[in-house]
Each structure stands twice: as C-alpha cells, then as structure tokens.
Amino acid sequence: MIILFWLAAGLLVFHYFGYPLLMGLLSHLKKNKPFPESGELPPLTMIISVYNEEDVIRERLENCLTLDYPRDKLRILVVSDGSTDNTHSIVEQYSQHGIELVVVPGRVGKTGTLNQVIPELASEIIVFTDANSMLRPDALKTLVRHFADPKVGAVCGELQLTGDAGVEGAYWRYEKAIKEFESKVSTLTVANGALYALRRSLHRPMNPQAANDFQHPLQVALQGYRS
User: Fold this and answer.
1) Using an 8 Å Cβ cutoff, are 190 and 180 in contact?
2) What is the CATH class of 44-222?
3) What is the C-alpha separation between 23 and 34, in angstroms, rounded?
4) What is the rounded average pLDDT for all residues in the chain?
5) Where are the domains of the chain?
6) Which residues in 20-55 are b (16+ Cβ under 10 Å) and which e?
7) How far apart are CA 86 and CA 165, in angstroms?
8) pLDDT tens digit string along 99-121?
9) What is the pLDDT of residue 192?
10) Cβ-count burial 169-200 (b if 16+ within 10 Å, e if not)
11) Measured between alpha carbons, how far is 223 from 14 in angstroms, rounded to an integer?
12) SS3 string of the chain?
C-alpha cells in the first residue's frame, strides 16, 4: 500500500509539475520555424455549438458580424443539439446575414452533433467555437495562417478570460503555457473547445461520449500531422 501511495503521489507531481517543466525545457531547445506565406485566404466553415443558449446567442452572433474575413469565403453554422428555449428563433433572425441554423433532433450531445454535420461540409478548414466565446475581429485570419504549413492538421485558439478571473484565470494561464510548449515540441494533446480549427479531411467519426476537443487532436496526431 505504501508503494502504491508513493507511486500515485509521484505520478500526480509529474503530471502537474514535472510534465510542464519537461515540455518547457524541450520547447526552448527546439527552434521555431517561421510561418510560411499564407497567400490567399481559404474558404472555411465556422460551427457554433449550442444548447439552450438564449441568454448569450444574440451577443455571439453580433460578434460574428465583426469578424474580418471575406464573407464569400466564410460559412457560419449554428448547430443546435435539440435546444428547447428561444435559441432557434433568435438565430433565425440573423439568416439575412448568412448565418445558418442546423437543428440536430433529440439530444445526442455536442460531439454527436458534430459527427452528423462535419461529413456534409464542403470547406477543408472547419472552425469550432462555443456560444459564449467572443472572438477578436482578426481571430479567423490568425488561425488559418498556420495551415499554410501542410503538416499542420489543427490549430488551437487562445482563451482570454474577462473580468477578475482569479484562480480560474491562473489555471487557464497554466493550461495555455502547456499547450504552447506541446505545440513547439510535437503536437497538442488537447485543444481548446472555445476556439480551434481542423482540416476536414482529418476528421474521423468520434465517440459521442467523449469531448471533441480531446479527440480531434488525437486524430490529427495519429495521422502524422501536428496541432
């Protein structure tokens, strides 16, 4: 029992302290390659996953209208996991701006809705985001420039908490640092569900019981690409 206790304690310490330190050291030893010229902006589809988001969806859609990306190359889909509040009616008010509502009947979960929607998309680059995540105007351009590298399969956005974040803010800064280290060394192990992008050709059907922002980076790595 004592051996098991110390083994568990050692693994816990390595997870929270040893692993970040190791990744930080390795990332500083590895030279960063300059971004290749991105050239023309690619067509992309942005999916906003929702379930009963009537309190925040209007602000989110107004935020979409501020994005600095060619409208003829940007398709915005609000994918609802069977919302039962006023989310659908609010989204429909923005149809004149080209924002589309896709309702997946029943309750299949966020990952389940993505399994149904992604195979029907045409653009190679897909951006995933949440109803309560507000994007800077240049967010999409910043994401897609990384795909100029043909070995990049997914790109994770940077989450910035607003207001007095406190302990939560400290945790996210910790997570952000680990993600940056992992990306420099090899590839991300987990994306940020608030904002990340993926090459559609690398998507594979996901376990609906597990988070998409965990499964997509794993799929990317297994196919020999980086995040």
Assistant:
1) no
2) alpha beta
3) 20
4) 83
5) 44-222
6) beebbeebeeeeeeeeeeeeeeeebbbbbbbbebbe
7) 29
8) 999 999 989 999 999 999 999 99
9) 80
10) eeebeeeeebbbbbbbbebbebbbbbbbbbbe
11) 28
12) CHHHHHHHHHHHHHHHHHHHHHHHHHHHHCCCCCCCCCCCCCCEEEEEEECCCCCCHHHHHHHHCCCCCCHHHEEEEEEECCCCCCHHHHHHCCHHHCEEEEECCCCCHHHHHHHHHHHHCCCCEEEEEECCCCCCCCHHHHHHHHHHCCCECEEECCCCCCCCCHHHHHHHHHHHHHHHHHHHHCCCCCCCCCEEEEEHHHCCCCCCCCCHHHHHHHHHHHCCCEC
- Token pair, residue 205, equals 């059907």
What one-letter code names the amino acid at 9?
A
Looking up tokens 């998507």, which residue turns up? 203
Question: What is the per-residue pLDDT for 4?
Answer: 57
Both tokens of 137, joined, read 């105007």
